[in-house]
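User: structure tokens for this one?
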Amino acid sequence: MRALTEDQLRAALVNAEAEELRHVAMPHDLALTDWDHQDFFAWRDPRSRGRAYLVAEPDGEPVGVVLRAAEGSSRARSAMCNVCHTTQPADQVTLFTARKAGAAGDHGDSVGTYMCADLSCHENVRIAAPLAPGEIRASVDRRIDGTKHRAEAFVERVRAGEGA
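Assistant:
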């Protein structure tokens, strides 16, 4: 991703209302972000436990969404993130929902997906697991590409409400 400022991140949020944009809290370590190694940028709101943000570049331009984390916990022992396809203990995967953009969102339409609770998907796919016999390192590149594509697809599903 290209480097984005606080104003650019706020402006990218397609499903946020003007009042919400004023209250978007940036991550404390934003200035330390290594943008060259970001497939997308996601963070939990440091002021609000249940709010998060995801910004991707599906068409080369930043498009972001405001997310809400589901409350409660799962009885499952493990769960899989739908973005990075990493299986983790169930308490480390959370259902995030986003109000659709535009008229669809005004009518209450939303979309959701299970994601890593700390939104560290771009880091999780880069963890080098031991190679299995016959496995090649290129599989990590495929995981990175897949994660980027699935994050962009989720953002597009939210943005699709603009034309509704």
